[in-house]
Amino acid sequence: MNLSRKWLNEFVDLPLDEYGDKAFAEAITVSGSKVEVTEDLSKTIRNVKVGRILSLEKHPDSDHMLVAQIDAGGEKPVQICTGAWNVHEGDLVPAALDGALLPNGVEIRAGQLRGVESSGMLCSLKELDANVHDFPYGEIVAAALLNDYHAIDPKKPSLPAGLRGGEKLFGSVVAAEVEKVENAGVNRWRIALAGGAETLTNCQNIHAGDLVAYDTAKDHICTLADLHAEQKEFPHCIPDGILILHEDCKPGDDMGVLLGRDDHVVEFEITPNRPDCLCVIGLAREAAVTFGKELKLHEPVVEAKAGGSITEMAKIVIEDAALCPRYTARMVKNVKIAPSPAWMRERIRNAGMRPINNLVDITNYVMLEYGQPMHAFDFSCVKDGEIHVRTAREGESIRTLDGTDRPLSPSMLCICDTEKPVAVAGVMGGENSEIVGDTAMVLFESACFNGPSVRRTATALGMRTDASSRFEKGLDAEGTLRAVNRACELVELLGAGEVVEGVIDVFPGKKPQTTLKLEPEKVNALLGTEIDEATMRRILLELGFGLEGDTILVPSWRGDVEHYSDIAEEVARFYGYNEIPTRFTGSISTAGGYTPLQRFERRIGELCRSMGLDEIITYSFISPSFYDKIRWPQDDPRRDSLKILNPLGEDTSIMRTTILPSMLEILSRNYNYRNKQAALYEIGRIYLKRPDGLANEPKVVSLGAYGPEMSFFTLKGWVEALLEDLGAARPHFEAEKNNPSYHPGRCARVFVNGLEIGVFGQIHPQVAANYGVDAELYCAELSFDALLSVRAGVPVFRPLPRFPSTSRDIAVVCDREIPVGEMVETILAAGGEYLKDCKPFDVYTGSHVAEGKKSVAFSLTMRSDDQTLTDEHAEETVTRVLTALASRFNAGLR
Amino acid sequence: MKELLQQLREAALKAILNADDAELEALRVRYLGKKGELTAILRQMGKLSAEERPAMGQLANQLRAEIEKAIDERRGELQKILLERKLERETLDVTLPGEKPKLGHKHPMYNVLDQIKDIFIGMGFEIVDGTEVELADYNFTKLNIDEGHPSREWTDTFYFTEDSRVLLRTQTSGMQIHAMETRKLPIRIIAPGRVYRKDEVDATHSPMFHQIEGMVIDKGVTMSDLKATLNLVVEKIYGEGTVTRFRPHHFPFTEPSCEMDIQCHKCGGKGCPTCKGEGWIEVLGAGMVHPKVLQGCGIDPDEYSGWAFGMGLERLAMGEYKINDLRLIFENDVRFLEQF
After folding, report:
1. What is the pTM of this model?
2. Does the interface ipTM go beyond 0.90?
3. Phi, psi at A603, each rounded to 5°
4. I need a labelling partner for A524 at 20 to 30 A (CA). Which of A109, A532, A592, B11 fits?
């Protein structure tokens, strides 16, 4: 919402020099209307004055430039060169003088143009950041001046060289020399032609001495279009030029003021519960209470002197009262479409909208002032004079004012005549009932529509308009009548037509007034304040609430107030949020702290980082095709994922049931960024369908890495270190050949006490290739819950060994397929009380070892807890180990 | 004999003074060994008178001690020289780079999250966790967000069921309801977590992001408490003396509602590009838990009251580390991760 401070001043006396931008913004922001930014429009234009053209001469060194003497209000005239041909002696024009700043940011300096002094620049509409909607008379029509003719092909000119006045061109068109040009009104010129003929034209680029094409039959001076000529044939006869002012102004007046730029525009962020603040009066009310000023409201007065009565001319039927609680209409006859006056155009422009014409501008003006969107129908286009407010019928469509054909669906509320929709309710009017130049009768609509319905319709049609964005927040149904009266008052003020007696007001959705009890102690208890009742009453009254004893009458425009806590907010806003004391009034009766589970999660993160892994955060949703990328079979039950019905795209359309693709995506991204190595971890969730439609969301510890230092055993070391730190019992590893995502010979499942913790290994090269990586990728997926359940409690101190340990190395030969891990487990199980550790340190195949066999060397560490280990004990231990290896694996000493 | 001893002393001490390690041992043998010169002289003791013998014996012992000491000293000296030479040989260019162990890094956003968790833990809060696949009841209805509210639209929220019953939570505020329904009073919790909204990815938007919800329910809790607690928290995050302001705002589940701003640290409130000229930077939304919400969770609003707040984690982390593009957070480029 953009608020013009000048417009605001009409309702609250807050002069700019007393209430500067910063002070105004700060105060009104902390009372609840947040200011985003304030723009001082006067700073966008400087030293551009109204000038009168005293004389015009041809530039001595240019075939198209003119030298003008300008009275810009100074003691002496100013000389300015211009290339525009639409100026005449006596015109009032915008003159940017030396040092001027234009709204487009261009600075103007005095200088020379082809050797002639030019102390500024005359401005076009564009240079003033305006268009013909801002200055409707600023449209420029150019005659085809034959003296500006440039043949496209010099060998085949369309006009003979040395053409003179009186020569026939074609049909009834002759060349004619202009003898005299006289102004005959706004954009009207009386042209005296050589030979005595006189004609009127709206072409502005004609001067005495020019040669024009004159259609004697039509009494008309030809434009390029009339001659079917191309622009490049008449390069200077362009429909552009200097803005000729027809305002109430005189030389020396400031153009900034004339453009309405002597204003500051405040942009507000209005929260959706306060649609009443989406207008000047709503914000004025807030400002009045904020600054302790009087709110000066005005009740519209309509004379309605035209004959007839609206009730005899029109009929309004609301067929769906739930979607349209109220429809109010008035009628205007003998409409005279014209530009609206400067003050209205200025306000509309400063509020961020574009002026169109008086009728349209009035509807927009009322919307900006009262917050009530309005629509004006050309009543002659409303068949049978009946308005039916109903939802669209199957197959109906409408061409809206923006020229687009829009199919309508039966959920969309429309304004229809007896036959067809003439507007999409609350969104946009139809082209079939648009106000045009010859519109004679207008029906003003001021209605209240259901917010969500308007929002859905606007969204479905892809057009959010100024009207729909207001309606969708739910407008005050009580405000329609005042708004339509204000529009009619403006029609009479502008002389835009004659208002017909009477109003049609269909109001099926009238709501009873909300009442609340004033309970000052409850308000203070919620706020932690000691605000006295009188202050509360004052604030409420100033905001437009009524008070009858202890009963608060909530004004109709405050649909958001329905509870004592809302009253507390109203009071607090104007008492000042920042005046509420800052102190602890409640008791602090909770101990707080991390739960063991949260500490465990933190610990896992710490461990991962201590091993050099960086933490990542990945999206919880993936594409179903990612299951293909990790080579899950089509019938894998884990593919059964929660599916988002309205995803942003395929890649984020299902909730992951595995964390692997997320890790692979990040590894692949880093690889593609040419990062030499990456070692990553995430403690993330997977989402498993539950019969009730919700999900189990277990956490997974995901590890992933690639790089020169990575191998299967680096990864395994991480897994082992993690388990060791958690105090888990000795893990058991099993080769996993059937996991489709992993290398069949480099993948293991890990168990603790028979409970599966997870899987890890080298990613299948085909999977890596699917991610565009031609290097070895390593991943682990460990169940957070499983890790939690195998975690040991608080460690119990074990006395440090008092006696030295001794070690023996043994090497045995066995079948090549036997996993060393199983051998270690066997050794540890068989070794007896003195065997403290067993580490395999060499696996050998080749010469001196039989085909199909391997030699495995173990280092055995032995120690006794109560004496220095004797050789006998050591030998006994080794023998037990060898016996077990022989019987279990048929392994013999090498 | 005395002269002999004197000669031997001078010769031995002189030789020791310049001997190297090997010579030293040879000298010791030569003078002090069983067949050494001193022994040879002492053998002649028998020729002396009984009176002379003790004095000469004493003299000889003194000499032995003196030579031994000289040898030890010389040996010590030699060792010292040797050590010095060794150290010199071992000298390194200490300006060459060290061999750093590879350190792992916490994700910057979780750095900030952990910092905030610690602050609240220190104030007697607990941390609660909830599921992300959620019922519309908890994400909207029980939070006083009515059926027609725009945030419920399929253009804004991800849904799993045609009837809009199951969704991906769009805010952590549903955790307020879960906490009120399941926990004993009084309650002091924060609930950080992932939330989802239908926003295309760009420099400031992501369909998945993180929020931290906080809530206190107790007897006698007021807006004063809210301000006091959040002021304290913000001072811990942004530094002591951080200037704050509260301004009215709107959330369906709190009333009164507010947003909290901190004064721009760059310009001190004058207005600069960092604060978009406003002088203030918004940090969080908060308010008194709506009595209707309390009632809906079976808590008597006449007996208990509460306040709640919610803040976006990404924006906080981006502010803390001056990260200019949200996409970096979820891209997980190690060159990014290893900066924090």
Report:
1. 0.84
2. no
3. -60, -45
4. A592
